[in-house]
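Handout, section 4.2: multi-component inputs.
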Amino acid sequence: MLGYMQEIWRCRYFWTSLVRMDLRTRYRRSILGLGWSLLNPIMMTAVLCTVFCPLTGLSWTEYAPYILGGMACWQLFSSAVLQGCTAYYQNESYIRQQPMPLAIYPLRVVLGATIHFLIALGVVVVFVYTVPSALPTPQPLRLLLSLLPAVALFFVFAWSVAIIAATVNVFFQDTQHLSEVFLQMLFYLTPIIWKTDMLQNRQEAISYLVMLNPISRFLDLVRVPILENRAAPLEAYLTVICCVCVTATTAALLMRRYQKRIIFHL
Amino acid sequence: MAGIRLDDVSLCFRVRKIRRTTFKDFLVSRMYSKTVNPVTEVRALQHLNLEVKDGERVGVLGHNGAGKSTLLKLIAGIYPPTSGTLHVQGRISSLFDIALGFEWDASGLENICYRGYLQGETPRSIRAKAAQIAEFTELGEFLTMPVRYYSAGMMIRLAFAIATAVNPEILLIDEVLSVGDLAFQQKARQRMLEMMQQARLMVMVSHDMDSLARMCNRGLWLDHGQIRMSGHMDEVIQAYERSVGQPAHDHRQAG
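Output:
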């Protein structure tokens, strides 16, 4: 395991340059560059604010950073799954040429998505600091200290999820399609556009499902420090750490078993 | 010291009748069952024992599907042996499928870096070589264009220049001598000879008996994944040509 990580580190120039290129082409192709790729979550936030603010009586200054923060996390997770599925196929020609640790190809996907996530998160933080609202202004040092481990955990989670998705997709071609359906359901079961307290006194079954959803705990880790100026609850941390452990172990086991054999199935 | 040693190495591809299944098929059509989707074993390499030492330049020949390219990919570490052990000592550079593995949206110059990193270069070492590679391709200002717009020949020029810019200890070559236009072919041949002098060990697959005779000092004849003959290059070529019913002639003089 340690040796494998060292090998990944040894070819760092290769994957970092590919990530840099991915980001550059993504931003170069559009007139607005960076802003363009943030357009989707920002427009979504605008639409949801227009629809839900009058309905729920929330002010948009509170609701907008809430959605944007949630969308940022969700996009990282969903691109880890969906782009992770194609990671090996897209890099097939490299895999066929040079024996490299396979985990670098999902890493390529996830690093790009994580940088994207950080930019979106930056927008939320700037929003909270500049737009006057009823939200408490977070204390910068505390915010940084609570966001750093959250981002680190999220990154490891996304990477291992991408490895799992990539490996499964080699054996079952329709993984991406199935994941889309699954993600669609999960999106509504996760408090991204709605708040957990809106659920109270509603159907028990739904709240139970939502409680079980680990992704919502990931969101807490990011959103609570930004929006409520306090550390995320310990319970959220524990759930997330457990979750990361499970996916990372699965990914490591898959890599160990299939690192050499994937080439026969591509 | 560079060296390759194969001890009783076999490589077996397990090919399923329907290669890539979906989860739906898996459940509905019972693709997991051996009767619906039978597994065929293809024995690409069988019980190979081979030792290649410093200074040897091995030419591998044999008919199509004999396992020549598979052997190279096995030595390069791309295919793991199904059984037996493989020892490779030395830094490998491989020249196969060289036209593959480009980033289409990146320029030629950027691709020089990516390929370089793939072959284990560092930013510092590639900076020193990039100008030299660019010059060798003779592509001039095309190098700032995305590779997407390159013709096949231009792509091969670029790929060849990058792949041969490293100083390997072990050189693995698979049928790349016929690259590009005539002028570039001569240049490529010259570069290959230079590279071979630097490399301590070479394994080359080709159907061109003239280049095999000129470049290699040891021959290996593969047949159905087995070594049919191993020895001096000229003798192996003669034996091979006799077996396919071609009159033997001296390739040393012909080339």
